[in-house]
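Action item from last week, closing it out:
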Amino acid sequence: MVILNALDNETLEDMTRVYTTNTTGPLLMGQEFLPLLKKAAQGSPGSALSCSRAAIINMSSIAGSITDVFGWEYGQVVSYRCSKAALNMLTKCQSLRYKEDGILCIALHPGWVQTDMGRLGAHKPPLTVDESVQGMLKVLSSLSEKDTGTFLSWEGKVIPW
């Protein structure tokens, strides 16, 4: 759930809850699945990193970009932004550690999608769920070793950190 608190109203409880979900959760999930990911990577022919071999795909958001602070005028969502920026760093750390195990790691922004969470006030997101999913599947199918550790959009574009 996105917390719509402004910076001046952010609380320890909101920051902790959202960080736990968006950053700590993916960390623990990666650790839990690591033995299976290593096994998949070892059992796949070739040495190139790809989603067909073994991958950690962290669902991030452009809201986690420090360079491009998308949508600030619609809502500050500080706890969400901070948690996604931390998730992006976690993804980079995972990519550095797990590359030697043959595991590709990226952070992926699904776009601004027409979901309950995606609506910001009166502003309707431009992407349907189907458009976002089709785009992400296309991106996932084209990933290679050069992409590990990156932050990509549903269109395959690099998002500035």
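Closing note: Residues 105 and 148 are 5 Å apart (CA to CA).
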